[in-house]
């Protein structure tokens, strides 16, 4: 949430985090000898008679340079800022400074203690104007400029630091222009503009699938001499089950004398009740933390995911059918009792569908993140970037239909002749049909990524001498993702927070 931690600002700010990474891009150059490998270039300069550096102990960088140049002569500049920093940090007894000619430098830059960067130089380094000869440091990585564990004063002067545009990524990664971490009060920005990049889109949620289950129907009831058992209850594969009553036995006729009619007093069994449909799953609930949070170590920003959708319940199998009634005629010519037909088994219930997963939060856009450090500011503008869009929620899967065949194991009315009469018992009744599985819930849309100009983390501070030396411009937060469909469609995710300064 917005907070207040900018020293000297009447308005509040947020904290920042820094991880140091240097990528020395290898640039092409027209002509010239094959570059020495590894540290051979440093050794070659050291072997030259006298001081290898000019009297000002300066290295030069230009878009027309090459990293195999000596770099200490305006006519033979380096190509990348990262390489120049590596060389400048090795200067003795103190680090060299770096002058950078106009242009856009797309590379990851890791600052080194005591190595100052000075932009705004014209090609050839004949004059300096930070507006006319703008120098932009940007990258295609999650952090463009890293400053970690600085233990000596380091100044960036006359530069534009720009976060990466990560709109083609779909992993919710954040974009940060400058991250300062565990560096005391050693980094100063002077005449610097910081521009937030664009956070990555959140990952889309996955659609649910059908859940495997065994929602069995109840067994049909069996008959015996002048009676029978009720059918069994259906179940829901471990979920709460609800079904109609099991079938009961039909009426039997069991006189002691030999009956004169073949089927009098006998009735078929009663059908089993149908199984109930499984309940639909609950939809996911979007996250409501619009600016996300940093992990305990302050290194990683994470967006809010919210509550996951749930699966649909399994349908209940149908109850078993009742058996038919029996016909006793054992007093007739030594014949026995004709028992009724067995009831049919209840049909199985359908399995529930799994819920869709929620869309991931969009990546944040940070201009500056200050982690457990104090950033010294002198005429600095920070412009918020674009937060990444939240991912779309996955769709819940429909449940499968319940079975409809309650005739499995069912027996019709049996008959038998004894003497001159054909006697009949009752037929077994069918089992009930199975209930359908419930539809899984839809996954919620992901929260849009926040756009925060300055973030202060773990007690980070942005400090400046006079009011008005920093200008913060609010960027645009990412939109929330679309919710998935389900038993009830899931809600869309909310847009992220857009703020000039947030303290985490």
Summarize the structure.
This protein is mostly beta strands and 504 residues long.
Task: Tell me what the structure shows.
This protein is mainly beta and 504 residues long. The chain has a domain at 23-132. The protein has two helices and 24 strands. It has a 16-stranded parallel beta sheet that branches. Strands 12-13 form a two-stranded antiparallel sheet. A two-stranded antiparallel sheet has the order 14-15. Helix 2 (81-89) links the parallel strand 2 (58-61) and strand 3 (97-101). The chain is rod-shaped and about 130 Å long. The termini are close together.
Number of strands: 24
Distance between the termini: 7 Å
Structural class: mainly beta
Choose one word for the global shape: rod-shaped
Which key terms come to mind for this protein?
504 residues; two-stranded antiparallel ribbon; 2 helices; mainly beta
